[in-house]
Amino acid sequence: MKRPFVALLSLISIALAIAVFLPAVRPVQAGGGQKAEAQEVTDGSNAADYCVKKGGEVNDRQPFYNTNDVEQNWLRLSGSTQFCKFLSKKDGSRIYAELSTLYTEEPSLAALAYYAEVTYNGNCNGNPASCYCSQLGGSDLFGGINAAGGGWVKKSDPDDPVLEACIFPDMSTIDSWGLFYHSAGIIRGKDLSKVLRFANPYGTK
Predict the structure, then answer these.
(1) What average pLDDT does this structure show over 116-145?
(2) Which helix (H) or strand (E) holds 7?
(3) Residue 148: exposure state from Cβ atoms within 10 A (0-12, 13-18, ≥19)
(4) Cβ-Cβ contacts under 8 Å for 63 (sequence gap 6 or more)
(5) Which of 5, 137, 154, 200 could serve as a FRET partner for 77 with CA atoms 20 to 30 Å apart?
(6) How far, rounded to the nearest angstrom, does the alpha carbon of residue 72 sit from its chain's CA centroid?
(7) Does the pTM exceed 0.85?
(8) What residue segments make up the domains of the chain, in order of their start?
């Protein structure tokens, strides 16, 4: 059963309301920055191990602008991120979840969007997966709506050298086509409800 978009918004509102009553964050003490960095490294290693354990492949990607042009004209942007790629041996379909989105046990907008299966409204003449991402409140656009294009690149990936990743305001991320197909009840790559550590708040179907 499809969940209306208002249900997703209601759940987000509840999460924000709970956050108001959480204890204040303790001040960072001297040397706290190094401890935080060490924790991030540990969490990242744990997330990567978890991805592989669940049948995924750790996918290192960098952001590029102008990917609709010839490759020599692509513009490499700052930063990089890691995705967990789940490839279906049955039909070759894929789905990508950013590692921390996959590994966290806390709510994230990307996970909530995946679970909610909001119906695509069709109010767009462009790429339906990108339009659906925008409908959910995320974005996979590089430089706004234009012909230049952009995406998260792994040139050696035989399936998706340029990935459309739907990024939400909390930085949680699942690829746009994975979200779009799942809204129609189609599983690509792997059913993320079986591997996301944040449990489905709507319950199982």
Answers:
(1) 92
(2) helix 5-20
(3) middle
(4) 76, 77, 78, 79, 80, 142, 150, 151, 152, 153
(5) 137
(6) 28
(7) no
(8) 36-194
